[in-house]
Amino acid sequence: YTMRQVTETEIKKRLAFDNPWWESSEVDLDPSQTQPRDYFGPFFRLVSESDVRRAVILMGPRRVGKTVMIHHAIRGLIEAAVPVTNILYLSLDTPIYNGASLERLLGLFAELHGHARDTELYVFFDEIQYLKDWEVHLKSLVDSYRRIRFVGSGSAAAALRLKSHESGAGRFTDFLLPPLTFAEYLRFAGLEEELIRPDENPRYEVKDYELLNDAFVDYVNFGGYPEAVFSDAIRRDPARYIRGDIIDKVLLRDLPSLYGIGDIQELNSLFTTLAYNTASEVSYEGLSQSSGVSKNTLRRYLTYLEAAFLVRRVHRVDQNARRFKRATTFKVYLTNPSMRAALFGTAKIEDDAMASLA
Q1: Ordered per-residue pLDDT tens for the chain, 358 residues
Q2: What is the spatial distance between Cα 46 and Cα 52, in angstroms, rounded to a whole number?
Q3: Cβ contacts of residue 226 below 8 Å, gap of 6+?
Q4: Which of 59, 223, 258, 307 has the maximum number of C-beta atoms within 10 A of its C-beta?
């Protein structure tokens, strides 16, 4: 038997489906996504900077709104009078694109709309880490097509951050999208005007400290993710959503597949220990004893967890901001405190864990 191959006609149909603005001239956003993140302005300036020959790599943890920000950028380009058929969006985790090279997909897009090689185009590759050796292919495209602005995004940041510095030297500009800030949380939740009054200079006055503290506790427990702000279901059961969709996918799928980690239970055990003790001072010796992982493996795992935006190491520094050479301890923070709530239950204002989470 010969296996059927995906045809070019099928890929072109999928391209049209993923880029509905080619027909409607509008980017259809969910009502809860119409407000852009505070980071959108600087990101959009990078995207629309067509005279710089570099691809923009949008990085960040899962579910912080990278795809939504790309769609805001596409809407911004259309509002700036960029022809709708000059904008291509591709999510590379779509099965139909599996095995297709970036160059082939770009060629089919150009063929579909009759674009010449020197047409000014904007191309967005979402979830770019699903393409093997993506950074080599993307660097080649940046070098080959001077009039195309490329943007890639991905959440398996271990691959993105570590590889983008090796293979894309001078060709990639990294842009980090972190979890929601508290200010963004208040705005997205519609609480800003109720709780904060702008004053002169520019300073701010709090209208109700008790309610502001309540809002902060909610933010610490689940406010890092835009979807959690708008969804009662997620707030009622953060474990199912945050743990299943964010933590487990990174620990069980992204990191093992990128680095060939054999003992997933060992990695999971280390992360659970770190999450429970977020903001604590630790040493490799102590961590090795409590998690049962050798010190050398620990160093590797911490590098992976940090590159995947799950944790952040903070080292002691001297008065000149240089790291202590002989320091044996360091602090480890979750990059988003909501992850601790998902693993161990939400924290109340009087709980011991609240100080560390704050």
Answers
A1: 666 677 888 999 999 999 999 999 999 888 778 889 999 999 999 999 877 788 999 998 888 999 999 999 999 999 999 999 999 999 998 989 888 889 999 999 999 999 998 899 999 999 988 888 888 889 999 999 999 999 999 876 656 666 656 666 678 888 999 999 999 999 999 999 999 987 777 788 899 999 999 999 999 998 888 888 888 877 777 777 777 777 777 887 777 777 778 788 888 888 998 999 999 999 999 888 887 888 888 988 998 888 888 999 999 888 888 888 777 899 999 999 999 988 898 899 999 999 999 9
A2: 9
A3: 32, 33, 37, 63, 64, 65, 68, 180, 188
A4: 223
Cα separations in angstroms, 306 against 221, 250, 298, 312, 313: 21, 12, 12, 5, 7
Q: Strands, DSSP E only, in 97-254?
A: 121-126, 148-154, 172-176, 196-198, 204-206
Q: How far apart are CA 253 and CA 258, in angstroms?
A: 9
CA distance 56 to 45: 11
Tell me how long the chain is.
358
Residues 6 or more apart from 30 whose CB is under 8 A from it? none
- Which structure tokens are listed for 76? 């911004």
Q: End-to-end distance of the chain based on CA atoms, in angstroms?
A: 61
> Is 61:246 a contact under the CB 8 Å cutoff?
yes
Token pair for residue 58?
């949008």
**36 in helix, strand or coil?**
coil
**Residue 19 C-beta-side C-alpha neighbours within 13 Å:** 25
Q: Name the pTM for this structure.
A: 0.89
Q: Look at the block and give the residue holding tokens 């590098």.
A: 303
How far is 60 from 180, CA to CA, in rounded Å?
11
